[in-house]
Amino acid sequence: MRLLAIVGPTASGKSDLAVAVARALGGPAEIVGTDSMQVYRGMDIGTATPTREEQGGIPHHMLDVWDPDHAVTVAEFQERARAAIDGVLERGAVPIVVGGSGLYVSAVLDDLRFPGTDPAIRARLEEELDAEGAPAMHDRLRVLDPAAAEQILPSNGRRIVRALEVIELTGGPFAAALPEPQEVYPTVRIGLDVPRDVMDARIARRVDAMWAAGFVDEVRSLADGGLVGTPTASRALGYQQVLDYLDGRCTEADARQATIDATRKFARRQQRWFRRDPRITWLPVDAADLVADVVSAWRAATRSA
Question: For 40-44, what is the mean pLDDT?
Answer without folding.
Answer: 92
